[in-house]
């Protein structure tokens, strides 16, 4: 078995100051509303401000975009032999990091070794410290529209600049923690984009327990991403919560590969315990609903808490390759 590794990171929940902060935001904080500037000039709204293609596999780009008030980056991991394969096209996996992580996270974890010799392109974009793969309702730091950046700009840019299958059958999305939520959200909300979705310790039910995960998204984004702004607004924009909640969009997963991983024994660390306890309960609720709807999936409940499980990532990537167009 491949060894597992617990990242040395604070959880998003702890960074937000815990559920007390979430409850406080629910009381009616007055927040400013964002407005994105006009798009950039390359046809996708992206302008490259830095890049490096010295490594034959891992290519790096940093962009200026009106959707994000700072310059987000992306790592694009190419398959072995990409440059010698002529006109061959490849399926693409969009791999989304967790809270307080960034576009380099999966390179640190071992993505190059996990994909050695495998015919797939892996795209790993910035999603913010607590961006929740969303366009926030309010922000006090300028635009933080990660959802628009990824879906409206980055995906078409990748398809235009790399030899991909620019179609449903050629794309998958996966992620860890906040990124696992983003993967589930993107798959349902953008129905024809991804043929495979994977959530590694990412919430699948954001209204359960009084909407604890939605409160968590608001609290963490206010604390470390938006300087008091929030993902869902105060009070919530109920339509947005519904659109983002996997549990309320079950039919939009039908006909797709679904891969779910959750930990069953988080540590006594409060952040680890609260994170994975909610993930596990939400996955079980989501799976029960998928069962009732007759929608198949693969799932794993493993010992341990809230961390990236290397063996499950490798299993997931192999399953994605087998499922997508070759």
TrEMBL record:
It is an enzyme of class 2 (transferase). PROSITE patterns: TAT. It comes from Kribbella yunnanensis. Keywords: Acyltransferase, Signal, Transferase. Gene3D superfamilies: alpha/beta hydrolase. This is Acyl-CoA:diacylglycerol acyltransferase. Pfam families: Esterase (PF00756). It catalyses: 2 alpha,alpha'-trehalose 6-mycolate = alpha,alpha'-trehalose 6,6'-bismycolate + alpha,alpha-trehalose; an acyl-CoA + a 1,2-diacyl-sn-glycerol = a triacyl-sn-glycerol + CoA. InterPro entries: AB_hydrolase_fold, Esterase-like, Mycobacterial_A85_antigen, TAT_signal. The lineage of its organism: Bacteria, Bacillati, Actinomycetota, Actinomycetes, Propionibacteriales. It comes from the Bacteria. Belongs to the mycobacterial A85 antigen family. Residues 1-39 form the signal peptide. Its EC number is 2.3.1.122, 2.3.1.20.
């Amino acid at each position: 078995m491949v060894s597992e590794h617990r990242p040395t990171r604070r959880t998003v929940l702890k960074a937000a100051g815990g559920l007390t902060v979430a409850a406080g935001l629910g009381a009616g904080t007055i927040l400013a509303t964002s407005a994105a500037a006009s798009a950039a000039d390359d046809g996708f709204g992206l302008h490259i401000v830095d890049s490096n293609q010295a490594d034959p596999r891992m290519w790096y780009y940093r962009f200026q975009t009106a959707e994000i008030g700072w310059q987000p980056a992306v790592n694009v991991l190419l398959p072995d032999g990409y440059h010698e394969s002529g006109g061959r096209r490849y399926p693409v996996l969009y791999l989304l990091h967790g809270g307080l992580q960034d576009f380099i996270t999966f390179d640190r974890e071992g993505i190059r070794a996990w994909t050695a010799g495998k015919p797939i392109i892996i795209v790993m974009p910035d999603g913010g410290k607590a961006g929740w793969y969303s366009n926030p309702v309010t922000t006090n730091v300028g635009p933080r529209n990660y959802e628009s950046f990824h879906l409206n700009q980055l995906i078409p840019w990748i398809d235009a600049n790399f030899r991909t299958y620019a179609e449903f059958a050629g794309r998958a999305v996966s992620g860890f923690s906040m990124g696992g939520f983003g993967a589930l959200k993107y798959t349902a909300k953008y129905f024809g984009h991804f043929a495979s979705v994977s959530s590694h310790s990412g919430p699948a039910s954001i209204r359960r327990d009084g909407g604890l995960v939605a409160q968590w998204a608001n609290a963490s984004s206010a604390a470390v991403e938006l300087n008091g702004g929030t993902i869902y607004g105060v009070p919530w924009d109920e339509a947005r919560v519904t659109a983002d909640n996997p549990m309320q969009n079950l039919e939009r997963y039908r006909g797709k590969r679904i891969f779910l991983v959750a930990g069953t024994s988080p540590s006594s660390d409060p952040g680890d315990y609260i994170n994975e306890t909610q993930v596990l309960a939400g996955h079980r609720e989501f799976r029960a609903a998928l069962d009732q709807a007759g929608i198949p999936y693969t799932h794993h409940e493993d010992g341990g808490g809230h961390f990236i499980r290397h063996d499950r990532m490798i299993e997931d990537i192999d399953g994605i390759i087998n499922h997508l167009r070759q």
